[in-house]
Amino acid sequence: MSMLTFQGETFPEQGRFLAEDYLQFVVDFHQENPAFVRRPLTTQLVSRLQYFFGLSVGWAFLLANFSLLWGAAYALFGLTLRLFQRPEIAYWSLIGFFTTFSLCFAFFPKIYSYDEPMQYLLLLLALLFWWRQRWLLFGLTFALSLLSRESGLLLLPALGWWAWQHPPTRQRALLALLVPTLLYGAYYLSFFYGVDTSAEARKLLSERQDALDYNFANLRFARESLVSVGLAAVWPAIVVVLFPTKSTFGVSLKPWKTAFWISLAINTPVIFLTARAQETRLFALPLLFLWPIVGASFARFWSVFQAVDWGAGLREKWYLFIGFSLVFLGNLWIYLKVTIPTGFYKTDNWQDEYLLLLSSLVAFIVMVRLLSSENVTTPSPK
After folding, report:
1. Interval 63-94: pLDDT, tens
2. How many C-beta atoms lie closer than 10 Å to residue 18's C-beta?
């Protein structure tokens, strides 16, 4: 049951394609709560679609967010194509993007995506401008992304490190990073002084202070909080780690990988301290540095997979198959007996099935890597 078809005691209507009353509540909540009013882009887009096309709030919300997701995918495709000059690599990156947990379950409990599609689109465009050294366009686009969600500020240290590693463009890149910082700072101050946020700010601060206690309230909550990190980051990061491409395609991927690890190291503790970790989408922000390059690692995995001599390999390393079988059976036992999300029934979504598939797939990928020759090469660019 997703937020698009939500039903409950407050919103009991059944038999409709979209939960209009619930989605109206969601949009109204984002229009009235000061913590969300300062993120106006998605809400304004939904309102404009309603006004100009006469759509209901449900259809406007659906059209806005899915259009933004496809726009983000198009921006990702363009960025990856710019990096590698190979369409097949860009298509592999799209697979990595759409199979990410926070994308597969974007509108399901406890993900509840709202501003993320807009944020992903703007940040991917900003990274495209960053790579092309269009500094002013980068600064303006990144500033717009902060209006969709201010969490993009957590990416600035990684981009600052990246800029520092390239002396010829260091000064201009660092100045470009100041543009979104100053623009959003001015916007935030004008918003803070123009809207009475005192009561809501105190409530929000209290919730933030209690976040760590909530995330690790007991063993069940702690387990789910830690699993959230794994669900968000393990896929597709595991493929990049096990099948590194270095500069095989004529592109140095070190800045992208290092930026991912820096932003992951910053973003993860911030989420634990200030938000509910069960909202797995919050941990996905660093993946913006991996999605453009993961296609190259997927391509290398595919070439390794095709090169493996399964018969001879499993005869020589039979213990790998035994290990994979034990891991799969262990995952199946966990799926059947252990994983029950806090506050929801297992039938509300397919997240446990995703976890079963993901953990088994990771074990399979590890087995492929161990069965392969150490010197398997990636096909040269055409």
Report:
1. 999 999 999 999 999 999 999 988 999 999 99
2. 17
Query: pLDDT band for position 11 (50/70/90)?
Result: low
* List of residues 6+ apart from 258 with CB closer than 8 A: 158, 161, 162
Query: Is pLDDT above 50 for 137?
Result: yes
Asked whether the beta carbons of 119 and 146 are under 8 A apart, the reply is: no
Round to whole Å and give the CA distance between 140 and 180.
6
Query: Helices 116-131 and 291-307: crossing angle, nearest 10°?
Result: 80
C-beta separation of 211 from 273 below 8 A: yes
DSSP tag of 82: H
Cβ-Cβ contacts under 8 Å for 174 (sequence gap 6 or more): 160, 163, 164
Q: Which of 24-38, 116-130, 327-341 has the lowest mean pLDDT?
A: 327-341
CA dihedral 11, 13, 15, 21 (to 10 degrees): -60
DSSP one-letter code for 380: P
Q: Which of 1-15, 145-159, 283-297 has the lowest mean pLDDT?
A: 1-15
Amino acid in position 142: F
